[in-house]
Structure to design on (240 residues):
């Protein structure tokens, strides 16, 4: 059994995987040593991988290293794909992980992964397992927050499945602008990807991926846990 720790911008997510399947998954605003001890004593994982995008307490990593083999995802990690990103040291580990997840679950296809979280990231990996790069834009919550932070009177709203094209009040205008805008952005990116690549697949993942399910014109697959598949494969490769 493998322990997967994904330290994101807003949450720490902990997964346990056995034979490629998730048997435990939980999100933490802050991961404590007590929570980690409880997970280790309950599931007895043999090895772990830690992917850090946000802030992570070094004492947790020290504690884990005393209990089992830990691989910290980094620029020198072995990967099952060729990375052609021009600035690999600035590439987020979450983006590499979802790309590896894509080639694991959808081999021999050109895959666009749209990761819908704090940021919306677009990542393209080819059928011959070459990671090309993609795009980064603000996530849905970040768009709402920026309107509230950088204007004098606009309120802070949150994601909603009910919104119209034409808002008749300020709240509805914000919902219309943000949500119609983000749907149009994702649809346009997918359309351009499909024009370039045949034998292609589009996979949405991340916490906000379910929002897009019935709103996009283009055909998509949704796998909210793609990152854990990728991190698990990277762990196995680096533990050999």
């Amino acid at each position: 059994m493998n322990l997967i720790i994904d330290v994101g911008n807003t949450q720490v997510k902990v997964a346990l995987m056995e034979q490629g399947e998730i048997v435990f998954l939980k999100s933490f605003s802050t991961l404590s040593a007590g929570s980690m001890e409880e997970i280790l004593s309950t599931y007895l994982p043999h090895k772990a991988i830690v992917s850090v995008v946000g802030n992570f307490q070094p004492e947790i990593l020290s504690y884990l290293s005393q209990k089992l083999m830990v691989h910290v995802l980094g620029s020198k990690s072995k990967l099952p794909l060729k990375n052609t990103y021009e600035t690999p040291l600035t590439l987020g580990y979450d983006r590499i992980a979802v790309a590896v997840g894509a080639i694991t679950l959808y081999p021999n296809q050109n895959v666009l992964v749209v990761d819908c979280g704090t940021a919306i990231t677009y990542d393209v990996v080819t059928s011959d397992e070459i990671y090309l790069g993609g795009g980064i834009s603000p996530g849905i919550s970040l768009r709402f927050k920026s309107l509230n932070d950088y204007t004098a009177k606009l309120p802070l709203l949150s994601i909603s499945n009910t919104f119209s094209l034409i808002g008749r009040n300020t709240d509805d205008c914000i919902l219309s602008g943000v949500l119609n805008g983000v749907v149009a952005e994702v649809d346009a990116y997918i359309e351009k990807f499909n024009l370039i690549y045949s034998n292609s697949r589009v996979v949405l993942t991340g916490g906000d991926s379910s929002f897009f399910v019935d709103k996009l014109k283009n055909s998509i697959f949704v796998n909210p846990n793609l990152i854990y598949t990728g991190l698990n494969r990277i762990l196995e490769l680096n533990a050999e």
In short: The domain at 82-230 is CATH 3.30.420.40 (Nucleotidyltransferase; domain 5). The mean pLDDT is 94.
